[in-house]
Predict the 3D structure of the following.
Amino acid sequence: MKMVFSFLIPLSVAAIFGARLRAQPAVAAYKDPSLDIERRVKDLLERMTPQEKAAMLSGSGWMESQPNARLGIPAIKMADGPMGVRNWRGPSAVTNAASTAPVTATAFPAGIGMAASWDLELVASAARVIAQGVKALGRDMILGPTVNINRVPLWGRNFEGYGEDPYLAARMGVAYIKAVQNEGVIPSVKHFAANNEEYERHRIDEKIDERTLHEIYFPAFKAAVEEAGVWAVMSAYNKLNGEWCAEDPYLLTETLRKRWGFRGFVISDWGSTYSTEGTINAGMDLEMPGGEPMRIWAKKPETKRDGNGAGWLTADKVLAAVSAGRVTQEAVDEGVRRILRVMFTAGLFDHAHAGGGEVDTAEQRQVARTAANESIVLLKNAGVLPLRAESARKIAVIGPSAALARTGGGGSSLVRPKYAIAALAGILAAMKEAAGSGADVGYALGAAMEGEDAGKPPRELREEAVALARKSDVAVVVVGYSPKLEGEGFDRKSMDLPAGQDELIEAVAGANKNTIVVIAAGAPVTMTRWIAQVPAVVYAWYGGQEAGHAIGDVLFGAVNPSGKLPVTFPKALQDSPAYGHYPGENLHVEYAEGIYVGYRGFDKHDVEPLFPFGHGLSYTTFDYSQLKVSPGRIVAGKTVSVSVTVRNSGTRAGAEVVQLYLQPPPSRVDRPVKELKGFGRIMLQPGETRTVSFELDKAAMSFYDSAVHDWVAEPGRFTVLVGASSRDIRAKGGVELAR
Ligand code: BGC
């Protein structure tokens, strides 16, 4: 019996062990796609050594995070954006070097042009195909969208963002982010926060009050987190109220994580860190760039001259900070956890983006063309547009941006497309379409863009243009800026057109009364010298690779323009609300205009802009009627519905962007005259009528109260203003916010 027992015991032990061995999963939990993401993250984190964890807090190269071969953690492979997939080979100097094989991809209009479309579906389509391009090129992450607000017309990067209004920027950013994440690609909403000037961008210290941050500079980031659940946020270069953005706990922990509930990771802007513990303890997770490329770059005199900071989160420095008790191991673990969480969410462990796919497909080109069409804003039209082939038999196309496609502004967002249609080519194509073989298009440079050699003196160039304009039925002068004059890393010197382009327009307008000015730039330019002398002005922004086709189609009416300004155009720089508080002194700038940025400032001080926020003409007309607000009283937790009927009362099909502004009742705090709270873009056939509806909630009526550090809504009667621009209100109503 005993023997049997003793025999039985080892048997049952073996059985238990056997069962345990069999229960051991074939693959580690973190490799199992069927498991919950938090479980996978936890499992992987437990397997990592302190050295391996520390290594993950900085990049391994210019555009890659740190991989781990032992555990099979892939690198996150990044590419710049947001207007397409930009080369990732290295800093601009390397990327743009003649010896570097260019990575070509579809170039979409710059963010400001996308914002001018006010078309969220379009933004989502562009973002979707950009993300598909990212994957086709074997990358995992796109460094965009840019949602910084246009505070001053001179900011070199105005073209990258979505304009001056926080609500519009938020809607655009959310549409972009959701579409990118839907493709399993990691976006990076940037630059958090208040990167609104390039002047001394690594050293400038901005003084911005709490209310202004929450009402103007934060909302697009807040919406990115709360509505789109964005996976990554890029911190900004500048200092904010005395702290570098990459080591500001108020920004990265209190606001982003505690207040808004951000669960992804924060990535530094390239070379924006200045300490180890300050950065980690503030909540910054991944320092870029890293590895050898970072070390080589950090040593360069220009890196030091510019004030870049780098190399603070290398594994040795992180480990030393932990040993010295300046950073806890938990803080390091938390950073790694956030990075891994996003990698699992994006599926990088389960299906790598191997690349090798097709880029710049026919579909992607079509989206780029639609985007260019919708981005164009017709600012002025005294009846000359659209051109008719019968009366515009001979066209003079003139200007430094006529034959050269200016697809984007300068810097990290500039995409190299496989082809790009310049205005001249687009006008020729559109004219051929309209007039057949009778198309007669002449070209003259007219003025050389600053930094571009024409081989002839300015006067001669201008005279050639004038002679051509004189013998033509119509003159189209295509002017603007170039990536060397408007781009990242520097601000524009002035709001005026550079390189004698004002004189060129005046001279051509003097020779031909049918002079149409087309502007390719990223921000407002001064037009007062010549605007009264020309019958039409078209704003084309930087329209990506299809810009020329869009310009031609708008001029000849194949496309009815529908873009609306996402930024106020002042008559002169001096009228801009931030004038006098830019670029600052001794590396300090005070945002003294507070919340009165853009149209909020023009309204408050009753300054007449050249063209107001939301302005844009069409070749048809729209009538607004029957504004309904229901119910007329709003209580907490409920919404009111606003509807308006819009009719195309002209003879052409066209799209209208219907805008809703709210005007608050008298308040205990100073509030803007009105603020954008809704918009809708509708396409209408001639004679067609449609109803556009909006939802308003209590949040739309709130302001940020610094006394309680929160949003507050005061009861009272708000005026609902619906119109075709911020200064073209067509219907009014009211809504009562209940106590
Ligand atoms: C820019 C970022 C960009 C990064 C990587 C920085 O200089 O500010 O927007 O994504 O470089 O190229």
About this structure: Residues 2-23 form the longest helix (22 residues). Residues 1-22 have pLDDT under 50 and may be disordered. The two ends are 86 Å apart (CA to CA). The chain has 21 helices and 25 strands.
